[in-house]
Amino acid sequence: MRRRTRIHIDGLPLHIVQRGHNDAACFFDDQDRLAYLGWLHEAPAGVRGRVFTLAKTEEAGGQVSH
What is the pLDDT of residues 10-26, one digit of tens each? Predict the structure, then answer.
């Protein structure tokens, strides 16, 4: 089944979630997490109100927030 078309309206906030394939881990260690955060901080000019949470899956036992 196809994914529904995303709606984007200028000026309204977006909630973006990235998950690994079949809920696999996206990050394997803190170095991966820090590299990803670095890329997120390079967002283009005009992007406001960025909030990032890098959470481990429930199966991995807990949550890691930066």
Answer: 888 877 777 788 878 88
